[in-house]
Design brief:
single chain, 168 residues, alpha+beta, 5-stranded antiparallel sheet, 3 helices
């Protein structure tokens, strides 16, 4: 279960059993009007595929925090522990993952999206489409390098030109 405005594993809870689910729903609905439920898919990492204007921009694996089921382990009173990452060249990422990410992002629009995907048991499962994804130097751009930034800047320039030059 998760709240729609969580991030980096915050607001995401692994719950099973009717009583536990009802208790967690009651707790979450005290602070949120919406609660999302999804299948728990255990994996060693989540794919994050950056999609810009309907095309893949980067492919990154966010590894789970050590001995934990999320990419960040949050515990009350303790420092958060993050998993690592592995950025993959676009031409080496699984085609099924890339296709699912592009199709999911295109349903939202032509912007910049981070599509989170689980690949498990021969299935590709879209977990979410982030409309304000992080893009950290040395992480998501580690494989494609400056191409990521060049494409992003060109996209912004085209949008600004279209905005300030309507009908041109």
């Amino acid at each position: 279960m998760k709240i729609p405005d969580g991030s980096f594993s915050r607001g995401v809870f692994k719950v099973s059993g009717t009583e536990a689910i009802e208790a967690k729903l009651k707790e979450l609905f005290a602070d949120s009007d919406v609660v999302l439920a999804q299948e728990y898919c255990p994996t060693a990492f989540d794919w994050r595929i950056g999609v810009l204007d309907g095309e893949p921009l980067f492919a990154c694996q966010y590894l789970m925090a050590k001995k934990h089921w999320q990419i960040v382990r949050h515990e009350d009173g303790k420092k958060s522990v993050e998993g690592s990452f592995k950025t993959v060249p676009l031409n080496e990422a699984p085609l099924a993952v890339m296709d699912a990410a592009v199709r999911a992002a295109r349903l939202i629009g032509n912007g910049f999206y981070g599509v989170d995907i689980k690949e498990t048991d021969g299935r590709v499962v879209v977990i979410e489409v982030n409309d304000n994804p992080n893009l950290d130097h040395g992480v998501e751009d580690a494989a494609e390098k400056d191409i990521v930034w060049d494409r992003l800047i060109q996209w912004f320039v085209r949008r600004l030109d279209a905005y300030y030059s309507p009908g041109a």
